[in-house]
Amino acid sequence: MKNHKTFTYILFLNAILFLIPYSSSHSLEDAIKSKDRSSKNVMRDRYRNPYETLSFFEIEQNMKVVELSPGGGWYTEILANYIHSPGEIIAAHFDKNSNRDFYVRMRKNFENKVNENPLYKNVSVVDLSSKLAEPGTVDAVLTFRNLHNWIGPQIDLIFSNAHKALKKGGILGVVEHRANPGTSLEEMKRTGYVTEEYAIKIAEKHGFTLISKSEINSNPKDTKDYIRGVWTLPPVLRLKEKDKQKYLDIGESDRMTILFKKL
Questions:
Q1: Is residue 96 within 8 Å of 132, Cβ to Cβ?
Q2: How far from 52 is each of 37, 47, 81, 101, 257, CA to CA, in Å?
Q3: Do you find a cis peptide bond into 234, omega within 30 degrees of 0?
Q4: How far, in Å, CA of 241 to CA of 227, rounded?
Q5: Is 176 helix (H, G, I), strand (E, B) or coil?
Q6: In angstroms, rounded to a whole number, what is the distance separating the alpha carbons of residues 224 and 179?
Q7: Distance (Å, rounded) from C-alpha 155 to C-alpha 63?
């Protein structure tokens, strides 16, 4: 009997020792510090503030999260390290059958990365124009620096589908290059900067409620008056070597960070 009790106690201790590192290794802070992340992506942390941003958006590791238009997957890399079963990530990328070659290439490159790296085992890929997920099944929808690309009918479709996919109480987190108040729609499209007023109006139009705004990703150095728009700044640096140091000193764009919910 004594040997049985001792064996049971050892099994219990082993279970505790196993669970402690597992639970801590997937914290948001550890996901951001993970060596699984590319060094090139880590360099952008000081501009994109992933810990503060995802904390503000109330993202937890057991959530079902849709990331809209993830591009090369800068945030996907962090989310994939952080979100674990029963949580999952749905990456709504450029449509697979798009008539734009650039979109098709970007989608293929993203899918190849997801399929070839076990880090992304919890990530599935769908079309941006799709229903995203079954209605009422998603905990959070996130988008980072994308609204300017969608201005027009597309933004209505995306926000509508996001609202349908979210559970009641679900989160919509938006980060976007911030235009000065009064900027026209045409100027938003041209420069890549969007007004807070427009972002809030679109979200509310599709049933979302504004919960909070944050200055986590603000940059007062950004003058927003560049000939080549927001892409003049890093990481794109569209003017290449011309005044490169000037734009590096400014850093990445001034950004709004807004939290909405489906109430």
A1: no
A2: 18, 11, 16, 35, 10
A3: no
A4: 15
A5: strand
A6: 7
A7: 24
β-bridge mates for residue 124, sequence order: 90
CA distance 258 to 260: 7
How far apart are the C-alpha atoms of 242 and 257, rounded to whole Å?
Answer: 30
Quick check: 92 and 58 in contact, CB under 8 A?
no
CB atoms within 10 A of CB 188: 20
* Average confidence (pLDDT) over 204-224: 98
Helix (H) or strand (E) holding 140: strand 138-144
Alpha-carbon span 249 to 263, nearest angstrom: 41
Sheet holding 138-144, edge to edge: 123-127, 88-93, 64-68, 138-144, 166-177, 255-261, 209-214
Residues in the chain: 263
Paired sense of beta strands 255-261 and 166-177, if any: antiparallel
The model's pTM is 0.90
Q: In order of start, what are the domains of the chain with their CATH numbers?
A: 34-261 (3.40.50.150)
The tens digit of pLDDT for each residue in 125-158 reads: 999 999 999 999 999 999 999 999 999 999 999 9
Question: Rounded CA gap, 86 and 15, in Å?
Answer: 20
Give the Cα separation of 247 and 197 in Å (integer): 27
